[in-house]
Amino acid sequence: MKIVVHAPNWVGDHVMAYPFYRLLPELFPNASLTLIGRSWISSLQPKTFHKIIAFDAKKNFSSEIRNQLKTEKFDIGFTLSPSFRSALLLFRLGCRLRIGFREQLRTLLLKFPPERGALRIPPVNRLEHRSLSYLRLLTPFFPAELVAEEYLARLGTVTEKFTEDKNFLNTELGKQFGNAIRHKVPVLAICPGSVAPSKIYPIHHLIQVIANFLAQDNRRTVILVGSGIEKEYAARIRKAFPQEANIIDITGKTSLEQLGYLLSQTSVLVANDSGVGHLSTLTGTPLVSFQGMGRKEETVPLNPRKVIFHLQLPCSPCFKKECPRWDKPLECLEGIPPQAVSAAIENFLRATHYKK
User: Fold this and answer.
1) 23: confidence class by pLDDT, cuts 50, 70, 90
2) Which homologous superfamily does the CATH classification assign to the domain defined by 166-351?
3) Least CB-packed of 4, 163, 261, 322 within 10 Å?
4) Angle between helices 148-155 and 18-27 (to 10 degrees)
5) Is the pTM of this model over 0.85?
């Protein structure tokens, strides 16, 4: 049997799909598994797949790759993306079964298993966790006595092993990070940005959090992590501290695989509602994060070691990229005091027996 899976379009959703990825070889032990999706899946590869095929989102799927995949003659295609385009791709590949969330016109492109298979897959439920929604796509293939919730409880918090990248660790920034790890002092990772301004914990608050952290011990180290999106915010943070402060800015300088390894070595991660925050689920890094514009029940990281600040204001969730409030802009994040964030960090450090 040959199975193809269209990955979600965002890093955080990709991580939330890991329970789905982990269950596939269990349900289909003899199947050949292929994952397709945006270019970054080559850097964060679930180990359950035999083949990874990435494409540039701007150029879409080239006819050459599409024709190559057509020759595979897939038996089953799953799309974890809600887009019409992903369902159309499975249709064009000629997958015998095409399974995805039943939304809008794309339902016409899907083909579910016989024996009421479609009825066992409900429309996507925005009130439940996205990892659970992904697992529900597999329900036609579950043993009759099992449900998606049982699989999520078993597979949702399994960590991944990330490979040490000696090429990066031999760079100047990598050596600084390596020195901090070897000295066994607390290392705080901070991802200061996000794709939506309404998800970003105020930078002036983050600066205070970093100051509180470094003030405890002059050997402590902070690393600023993320993609190119975070570079502007990292520069503002770095400018607020003297040059000799133990702050390493590696934003935009690592792949997701490299970042996964670095996070696996750090003491605590502070991140917004973002892909990097979800990555901590795979690395097992204690997480301090924030919720405001999104629905916590749907997208909170599955990481069991986390503190999520959520003020539960009447205007949350608003699902707006820009805060719609004119009276108290971004109150859902501005209202979270840096002292509370610092206390959560120190609690994690005490739990892991770090000493000043």
Assistant:
1) very high
2) Glycogen Phosphorylase B; (3.40.50.2000)
3) 163
4) 110
5) yes
